[in-house]
Amino acid sequence: MRMELLIILTSKKGSMEKKIKLLQKQIDLLVNLPETGMGYQIVDIKLKDGRIFNRKVVLNSMYLQIEDKEKIDPNEIEAIKLHKKGI
Question: Which residues of the chain have pLDDT under 70?
Protein backbone atom coordinates (compact mmCIF):
# COMPACT_ATOMS: atom_id res chain seq x y z
CA MET A 1 0.00 0.00 0.00
CA ARG A 2 1.45 3.34 -1.05
CA MET A 3 0.88 6.18 1.37
CA GLU A 4 1.04 9.71 0.06
CA LEU A 5 1.46 12.33 2.74
CA LEU A 6 1.49 15.94 1.62
CA ILE A 7 2.13 18.66 4.16
CA ILE A 8 1.84 22.32 3.19
CA LEU A 9 2.91 24.89 5.75
CA THR A 10 1.14 28.24 5.94
CA SER A 11 1.37 31.10 8.41
CA LYS A 12 -1.64 32.49 10.25
CA LYS A 13 -1.24 35.31 12.76
CA GLY A 14 2.23 34.22 13.80
CA SER A 15 1.45 30.51 14.11
CA MET A 16 2.11 27.85 11.53
CA GLU A 17 -0.58 25.65 10.07
CA LYS A 18 -0.28 22.45 8.10
CA LYS A 19 -2.48 21.08 5.37
CA ILE A 20 -2.41 17.30 5.19
CA LYS A 21 -3.76 15.39 2.20
CA LEU A 22 -6.41 12.91 3.28
CA LEU A 23 -6.61 9.32 2.05
CA GLN A 24 -8.68 8.65 -1.06
CA LYS A 25 -11.43 6.86 0.90
CA GLN A 26 -11.72 9.91 3.19
CA ILE A 27 -11.81 12.25 0.21
CA ASP A 28 -14.55 10.12 -1.40
CA LEU A 29 -16.61 10.37 1.80
CA LEU A 30 -16.26 14.16 2.03
CA VAL A 31 -16.97 14.75 -1.66
CA ASN A 32 -20.45 13.32 -1.05
CA LEU A 33 -21.17 15.59 1.93
CA PRO A 34 -22.32 19.21 1.68
CA GLU A 35 -19.86 22.06 1.93
CA THR A 36 -19.99 24.35 4.94
CA GLY A 37 -18.97 27.22 2.67
CA MET A 38 -17.47 27.72 -0.75
CA GLY A 39 -14.73 25.09 -1.09
CA TYR A 40 -14.48 24.00 2.55
CA GLN A 41 -16.09 21.81 5.19
CA ILE A 42 -15.93 22.05 8.98
CA VAL A 43 -15.51 18.54 10.38
CA ASP A 44 -15.01 16.60 13.59
CA ILE A 45 -12.36 13.88 13.45
CA LYS A 46 -11.97 10.83 15.68
CA LEU A 47 -8.64 9.01 15.70
CA LYS A 48 -8.18 5.29 16.33
CA ASP A 49 -6.54 6.09 19.70
CA GLY A 50 -9.74 7.86 20.83
CA ARG A 51 -8.58 11.46 20.45
CA ILE A 52 -11.16 13.82 18.96
CA PHE A 53 -10.46 16.99 17.00
CA ASN A 54 -13.51 19.24 16.63
CA ARG A 55 -14.12 22.02 14.13
CA LYS A 56 -11.27 21.27 11.73
CA VAL A 57 -11.30 22.76 8.24
CA VAL A 58 -11.03 20.54 5.17
CA LEU A 59 -10.34 22.37 1.91
CA ASN A 60 -11.76 21.02 -1.36
CA SER A 61 -12.73 17.77 0.42
CA MET A 62 -9.05 16.86 0.31
CA TYR A 63 -6.74 18.87 2.59
CA LEU A 64 -7.12 18.78 6.37
CA GLN A 65 -5.92 22.03 7.94
CA ILE A 66 -4.34 21.60 11.39
CA GLU A 67 -2.19 23.62 13.79
CA ASP A 68 1.55 23.06 13.54
CA LYS A 69 1.61 21.53 17.03
CA GLU A 70 -1.12 18.98 16.20
CA LYS A 71 -0.17 15.54 14.99
CA ILE A 72 -2.73 13.78 12.80
CA ASP A 73 -1.84 10.89 10.52
CA PRO A 74 -4.57 10.27 7.90
CA ASN A 75 -4.05 6.52 8.40
CA GLU A 76 -5.04 6.91 12.05
CA ILE A 77 -8.39 8.61 11.32
CA GLU A 78 -11.25 6.36 12.38
CA ALA A 79 -14.13 8.70 11.53
CA ILE A 80 -14.81 12.04 9.88
CA LYS A 81 -18.18 13.75 10.15
CA LEU A 82 -19.51 17.21 9.44
CA HIS A 83 -19.48 19.44 12.49
CA LYS A 84 -22.98 20.27 13.66
CA LYS A 85 -23.60 23.99 13.99
CA GLY A 86 -24.16 25.27 17.50
CA ILE A 87 -21.94 22.66 19.15
Answer: 1-15, 86-87
